[in-house]
Amino acid sequence: MPEGSILSDDFLRELINVGEVDILIGVPTYNDARTVGQVVQAIRAGLLKYFPRQRAVIINADGGSKDGSQDLVRAASISDISHSSNLNALRTLHCISTQYSGGSSSGNSLHLIFSAAELLRPNICSVVASDSTSIEPNWMEHLLRPIARDNVDLVTPLYTRHKFDGLLVRNLAYPMTRAIYGMQVREPFPSDFAFSGKLGSHFLSQDLWSQDSVKSGAEMGLTISAIAGGFRVAESFLGKKSRMDHAPADLVAAIRQTAGVLFWSMDGNFSTWSKVADSQPLSTIGAAPELTLEPLRVNRKRLREMFCVGVTELEPLLRSIVSPATMDELKRCSGAPEAEFRYPDELWVRTVYEFAASYHESVISRDHIIQALAPLYRGKAYTFLSQNRDASGEEVEKNVEALCMTFEQHKPYMLELWNGRK
Amino acid sequence: MALPQDALWYKDAVIYQVHVRTFYDSNGDGIGDFRGLAQRLDYLQELGTSVVWLMPFFPSPLRDDGYDIADYRTVHPSYGTLDDFKLFLDAAHQRGIRVVIEMVLNHTSDQHPWFQESRSSRDNPKRDWYVWSESDTRYRGTRIIFLDTELSNWAWDPVSREYYWHRFFSHQPDLNYDNPAVRDEMWSVMKFWLEMGVDGFRLDAVPYLIEREGTNCENLPETHVVLRELRAKLDEHFPGKMLLAEANQWPADLRPYFGEGDEFHMAFHFPLMPRMFMGLKLEDRKPITEILQQTPAIPENCQWVIFLRNHDELTLEMVTDVERDYMYDEYARDRSMRINLGIRRRLAPLLDNDRRRIELMNGMLMSLPGTPIIYYGDEIGMGDNVNLGDRNGVRTPMQWDGGWNGGFSAADPESLYSPLMLNPVYGFQAVNVKSQQRFDHSLLSWMKRIIRVRKSAPVFGRGTIEFLYPANHRVLAYIRKGPSETVLVVNNLSSSAQAVELDLKQYKGNILIEMFGKNIFPRVGEAPYLLTLGPYQFYWFRLRRI
Asked: B326 and A83 in contact by Cβ < 8 A?
């Protein structure tokens, strides 16, 4: 790898051969051979159907797969070289792949995709998760068209999801982003999204890429960057989102990628968010999303236990982060019998805001602050699951909306904390 | 200058397509004529023309630009006499230029005496010279070609009260090639002109000679039987003469027209032309390489004929719907530029009068496999006039100079067969032969140079082609290889500068010599050969092992 560049010479050579494009689709992979072939074929079909005249490239940023993921992406190319090209395609479609260094990480893969976009100068870019097995060719239409036709700069997805899917987003990332930045982005940490070349260039110039702790949450960073930068954001309904079953997610990493980036972004965007008093809905393309309600086994008990253990074991640390009043309430919660356990919205909002303020002040190591949020979030997740166990989709939405409003109502408290008055 | 005696002369040819009416008017009546054409042969010789292909010049009501022939054995009086034609033919031969004429086999004008006799009564001896029917429901599987004007392939004849078959305009009844008398008569017509000295025929609309129920009435085996008969007679009585097929078909469907080298000598490669325009606009070689990959091999003594533009619309019959829509949007956004399934525009306006693109397209025309045709006036970048109706906008008078009627005719401008181009960009005062002859950098001078270079390398007419497929899809690169020479052609289809790495390992040790400037480029080694090309730039390199 040439010093100071994320692009290898071989990859750069491939980019030279691709040349300027109108559309760039990025697909990050790491040992995704089971799914990536299907995803890339759907992308290709979508491009051929909805954007047959545009110059397009699919770029695979691979974290070091050993299962042939890269070959599956390359196989989707349409060219005259293979002699088996798609005769219905007007033009060549390059599908290129490269491995980035530094180990598998979504931050590294997105950094590579954004860097490639900077060189190929597409008007429209998109990133599609390699495990989005429910992808249909019309995702390309739904993600890209708002940018091509309506001059939108960022298109985030809306999915039909299970009511217990995306708990961290519903309880933290969405409501807090909405309250802080004033836009109701339902999926601020999207795995499938599209953005304009202009926004891509703007985002690439942010200093997020130099900070390993927040780089991993680049998707969240992009959303915030778009809002804070005054870019046009819209949502597009993609349909069902199903993914392959993975090993249990690393919660601390997930919080680092969402809350961590959100907290970090507040430092640089104070002048923007401090003026925001309420929130605005986004223009939405397509149908309104629905929640599915089929029974799902969740080990709630374990969540509460981990909350209680966390509050007890981390008390000295938590005391340096949250206010005494909040700490007292957390302890009261952890001492409550299971049947009465509840982490109220208002307490959760105050907790999160105090964590954000402490992150800003760097009262202790910022990463320790993020890690300390994990057990508390588990308590909130337990409460959400209990509260909505028998709830209809509408009721779940109502509860999420109530939490969002609590975040918004307490925004002045956040400002007071930030200004050091609390 | 003697004509080359090689039997395969058509492979090395550069064909110039012209209608006598459009070229030069010698008698001041406003219409080009054979004496005028003869007077301009020096120009064609200087350009490098080796064959003149004349569009129909026979007596005709001229309702389809002469493709509606009313008498096959003489010359339309507007263009002169048969003696004038002979004078022109001899003068061309003296300059080493062969003459190929049009022969419309499929149909005649409804004014032709044969048809007049045929329609006169149902028991007339010539009744069976045309295809008649009591109903208009036969051959239902046959497409209509002139969609803009015709609703059916059958037309009602009120005289004999039956329908007659016509694949083109209703005033062009199809001859009945199931009738041996028709076949004999058409051979007799061809013999008439061959004996006079013409060097070959472009046979118009050959896929449609025979009709059969339950088929699409195109490319039928019986049609090939008719054509092979004609070819056998030609070879027997007039060796060295050439037949060129006009059959707007896919390459695989065209292949049978070469037979085993015993049908046509040459055939137009219709699907290539729109794909060259498409490749240029897409900045992607895929359309071009794909259609050539699908092009079947043809017998050793046969040849494709390739072209950029001609007297008809830029036909989009041989493209997919997606491709056709793209071509319309990119090259004929104004609907008045569209006609039938094509675009009625000349080369220069199609390419926005961009000299670099005009040169690149001509560069490909001259270097891809086949014999190239230059449509009259395109060598100086003439424009078109879509307001003239039908395809007359690409058939305006040749622009010789900036003077009276553009040097075409001494007649009053009002009496010209067609208005001249007058606009400030393409009008005769801006675009004409005389002004371009004065400068080495003019398009005309450049065309002379590229034709000269092409003719210096027989490999372009006779060699094989091997595509190189560099990873940069904006670059179209190929090797033309013959027994004694090898040429590398590299075309940048893009509007921006490009770098390309060519795998030339098998030519390791060769030096590249650029064929226009004769400059030497670095020797080919093991590593990919790196070239950079400016926007729309192309190179022709001769590979030499020295």
From this structure: no
